[in-house]
Amino acid sequence: MKRTLIKTADGSYTLYVPELDEHYHSIHGALQEAEHVFIKHGIELFKHQDRIQVLEMGLGTCLNAFLTSRWSLENGKDVRYVGVEAYPVEAEVIGQCLDALGDVEVKERSFFTDLSYGQRQALGGFQLEALHATWNSLSYVKEFDLVYYDAFGPRAQAEMWTLEHFSIAFDSLKSGGLLTTYCAKGQVKRDLKSVGFEVESRPGPPGKREMTLAWKR
Questions:
Q1: Contacts for 111 with CB less than 8 Å, ≥ 6 apart
Q2: How far is CA 154 from CA 20, 157, 163, in A?
Q3: Which residues make Cβ contacts (< 8 Å) with residue 107, sequence separation at least 6?
Q4: pLDDT of residue 82
Q5: Residue 65: what pLDDT?
Q6: How confident is the model at residue 167 (pLDDT cuts 50, 70, 90)?
Q7: β-strands 210-215, 173-181: how paired?
Q8: Which of 212, 210, 197, 174 is nearest to 55 (CA)?
Q9: What is the rounded distance in angstroms from the CA atom of residue 195 to the CA atom of residue 201?
Q10: In the Cβ-directed half-sphere of 127, how many Cα atoms lie within 13 Å?
C-alpha cells in the first residue's frame, strides 16, 4: 500500500493513501483529533480504574498508542494496549510522525519505532502488544474496557464498518465497555445499535461536527 506523509493543520503528520483517496487522520489536525476522540472521549472516561485494557482497530502511525502511553504515565494507571494493524507502517515513518510532536523522549521514540509484532512490550505501566492481523481474525471475549475504532472511513473502506466488525468489537468488550470513533454517519450509528450498543453523539474534533460513543451496558 503506497502512503505519503502529509502535514496537518496543527503541525502533526498523517499519511495519505492515494488508492483509497483517504488520510489516516484528520487534515484539520491529526494530534487534535486523536486527543479529542481517543483520550478526552475515550480513556479519560475510565480514569477511575487503576488498570484499563484498550483494543485499537488501526495502530497506524502509533499516534493513539503514544498519547495513551503518555496518559498512562501522567495519571499513574496501568494500561494494557492491543493494537491491530493489517498494513504495518515503517519504523522510519512512525519516527517522523513522533518527531513532529516536538517533545518525545528518546526512550519513547525507540519504544514505538522498534515494535515487535506479536510480542508484549512495556514502557512503565503501559504494556503494548502490536498485532499484524485483520480485525475479523480476532476472537476476544469480554477482555477490554475500551475499543478505539480508527479504521479508514466508510467511503474508502465500507467493509470495515459492517455488522460483523461491530459484533467483534462488542464481544471483545466487558460490560460497561466503550467503543469510541471519529465517525458519526447515521448508518454506522444504526448498525452499532443493531449489535447491542447504546449510542451517544458527542461534539467532534476540529473539522467535524460530531463523533460517536457506543456503550456496552
A1: 69, 121, 123, 128
A2: 11, 5, 13
A3: 123
A4: 98
A5: 97
A6: very high
A7: antiparallel
A8: 174
A9: 17
A10: 11
Average pLDDT over residues 41-59: 97
Mean pLDDT in residue range 116-127: 95
Contact in structure between 34 and 64 (CB atoms under 8 Å):
yes
Q: Which residue has the cell 476522540?
A: 37
Which residue from 41, 34, 40 is spatially nearest to 8, judged by alpha carbons? 34
| Predicted TM-score (pTM) of this structure | 0.95
Q: What's the rounded Cα separation, in Å, for the pair 55 and 114?
A: 20
Spell out the alpha helix ranges (H) of the chain.
Answer: 30-34, 63-75, 91-99, 106-113, 163-172, 186-194
Quote the cell numbers at residue 35. Answer: 486527543
Sign of torsion, CA 32 38 42 43?
Answer: negative
70, 149, 154, 158, 162 from 187: Cα distances, Å: 34, 15, 10, 11, 10
Structure confidence by residue, pLDDT tens digits, 128-143: 999 999 999 999 999 9
For each of the domains in the chain, give its residue range(s) and CATH number, in order of start.
4-215 (3.40.50.150)
pLDDT of 77 reads 97
User: How does 111-147 read in b/e, with b if 16+ C-beta sit within 10 Å?
Assistant: bbbebeeeeeeebebbbbbbbeeebeebeeeeebbbb
pLDDT exceeds 80 at position 1 = no
d(CA 179, CA 211): 11
pLDDT for the residue numbered 153 = 87
Given a cut of 90, is residue 207 above it in pLDDT? no
Nearest to 158 by CA among 39, 30, 20, 26: 20
